[in-house]
Amino acid sequence: MRIDAKGMHYRQLNKIIRDAVASGEKEFELDDIGGQRYIGGGLNENVKITVNGTPGNDLGAFMNGPRVIVNANAQDGIANTMNSGEIIIHGSVGDIIGYGMRGGKLYIKGDAGYRVGIHMKEYKKQVPVIIAGGTAGDFFGEYMAGGIMVLLGMNGKSPIVGDYVGTGMHGGVIYIRGEVDPYHLGKEVSCLEANEEDMKLIGSYLKEYCEHFGFDLNEVMSKSFIKLLPLSHRPYGNLYVY
Amino acid sequence: MKCDNLMNPEKINPSRRVHQRIPSGCAISGMMSEEGRCIDGRAVIKSIACMHNRSNGLGGGFAAYGIYPQRKDQYAFHMMYDNAEAKETTEEFFKDAFNVDKDEPILTHRDNGVSNPPILWRYFLEVPENKLDLISERDYVMKTVMSVNSDIEGAYVASSGKNMGAFKGVGYPEDIGRFYRLEDYSAYIWTAHGRFPTNTPGWWGGAHPFTLLDWSVVHNGEISSYGINKRYLEMFGYRLELRTDTEVIAYLFDLLVRRHKLPIEKAAMALTSPFWKDIDRMEHEQKKIATAMRQVYGSTLLNGPFSIILGHSNGMIGLNDRIKLRPMTAARKDDMLYMASEESAIRAIAPDLDEIWSPRAGTAVIGRLSEAE
C-alpha cells in the first residue's frame, strides 16, 4: 500500500495504517512524510513500512513486530519502549532513542544524539540491540538496565561519544569501536577490552547491520572494540539510605 | 481543540480546558538570510505549523527583522491594550516621552479562529534630544518599556526595536501568523514559537517572543534559575513583569551584549558556562577566561531545560541548555541559516539542504548578517 502523506495529520496517517494492517495489508510505502509522529507505533504484526521523508518523534513507539525502514534522518524518541521488530535508519537520529526499549533492533547508519538507550532493559530472550555507525552525544546508555549497544564511529569524527557514558548503568553491555577517554565515562561503568566471545556476540548483528547500509564488515572489525559493563547491578542501593 | 483566548491571566483555569493528555512541548523555529535578503512570512508559518502538535493553542508568536525599511531609524513599538483607557494613558505617556511620528492599528484578519484579541496598535517613535542629557538613547527606551509594562495597567509592549516587530497572541502559531497577516511583511530574520504553557499563564502578553529593543527570544523549556537571574537583572534597572521565565533571557542579552559589550559568543558562554570539571582541563588562557566568566557572571547562568532562538538586528543565535534537555536542529542552504525544534520543520520549507546538524549542548549556533561585519 502506498500512501502520499503530504500534509496529513499523524492521527489520520496512523489510522489508515492500523486499519489496513487489520485487514491483512503487509507492506507500506509512505511518501512525503514530514514530521508525522508515532509511525509504526503499537503495531503487533510483522509488516514492512518504508518511510520516505523525515518522520516525527516516537517512531516505532511500543512497536511489536514490524520492520520500519527510513530513507532519511529521523528525530527524537525512536523505538520508545519498543518490544520487537526492526528499525533501520539510513541517516542520523536525534535524542532519547531507544528509551526503555525492551526488544528488537534499531540500526542507524549515521550519528545519534543525546541519551541513546536511556533505561533500555532486557528479560531472558528479549534483548534489544542498538547499533549506530557514527558518533553519539552525552549520556550514552544512561541508566541502562539491559540490552546491547554498539557505537562504531565510522565517519572518523571525534570524539566518538560524549560525556557521562553509562552514568547509572546497571545492566546490559556497551561496545565502542576504538578508544574512549576514561574522562568521558560515567562512575558506574568498568571499561574492558572486547574479547573473542564478545565479538562473536555482536558479529552476527554487525553482519546484518553492514548488509543494510553497504558497509564493509572487515573494515568494521579491523579496529578493536572496548566493552563497558556496569560495576554494580544496584549502583544506587545506598542512595537516600541514612 | 478550541480554546478561549484570555487577556487576563487571573482568569486562567487550565484544568477546565485540558480534557486529555496533549503530547506537547513548545516548538521553536527560526530562519535567517545572512545576506539580508527579505522574504515574506509564509515560510516561517509553514515551518512552525509542521510542529502543530508541540503546542496546545495557548500561545503563538513571531519576530521579524527588516519589516519597516522606510522607518528604520525610528523605534517601532507594537502595543497590546486591554482596553481604550490603557491606550489613552499610554499615548499620553508616549507624547511626553517621545516624538510620535506615526501611529496606526496593526492590521489583522479576524476570521481564522483567533478570538478576543486586545487592542493592537503600532507607533513609530523618536527620542527627543533633550531627554538624553544623562542617559543613552537605548537605555532611555529600555526604561520607558519597563515603565509601560510595570506602571500602566492593561498596557504591554510586544516589541520596541528598530526595523523589527513581534506579533504574538493566544492561539496556535499558524493561526496567529495568519491573524497578523504576516504574508504582508518581508524580513531577513523570522523566528516563531508555538506555546505549551507549563508554569505560567497563557495570555497575550505572555506569548513568545519576548523582546526588548531589537532583542527577541523564543524558548522551549523552562528557566529554573529564574529567581537568581531576576534578582541580578533588577540591580541593573530591569523590571520583570510578564510572568514568564523567558523574559530574563532577552534582558540578559541586552545587559551582556549591549551594555557590558561582550561579544555574542561570550554572552552565550555566560549563560551556559562550561562545567568546572571541563574548565579544569582547559589550556591556561582559556581556563583563565572561563573561570573569570563564571566568577563575574555566576548570576547569569541559566539552569533548567531550554532551547532558544535569539534574534537581533545583525543576526540569530540558537542555544541549548548545558545537558541538552530540549531539542534543536540547525541547517544551512546557500545564504540561509535555519534552526528548529525538529528537522521536519526545516525540511518543510527547505527540503534540500547543504548541511544539517544537531548543535551540541551549551554550544551557540551563530548567524551573522554579512553587511554588518
UniProtKB/TrEMBL annotation, chain A:
GO terms for MF: oxidoreductase activity
Domain Glutamate synthase alpha subunit C-terminal residue range list: 30-181
Signal peptide: none
InterPro entries in UniProt: Archaeal_gltB, Glu_synth_asu_C, Glu_synth_asu_C_sf, Glu_synth_lsu_3
Pfam families to which the protein is assigned, alphabetical: GXGXG
Superkingdom, natural source: Archaea
Gene3D superfamilies listed in its UniProt record: Glutamate synthase, alpha subunit, C-terminal domain
UniProt-recorded name of the protein: Glutamate synthase family protein
Source organism: Candidatus Methanoperedens nitratireducens
TrEMBL record, chain B:
Active site: C26 (for gatase activity)
InterPro entries cross-referenced by the UniProt entry: GATase_2_dom (IPR017932), Glu_synth_lsu_1 (IPR012375), Ntn_hydrolases_N (IPR029055)
Domain Glutamine amidotransferase type-2: 26-373
Matches recorded under PROSITE patterns: GATASE_TYPE_2
Signal sequence bounds: none
The protein, known as: Glutamate synthase family protein
Organism of derivation: Candidatus Methanoperedens nitratireducens
Lineage of the organism: Archaea, Methanobacteriati, Methanobacteriota, Stenosarchaea group, Methanomicrobia
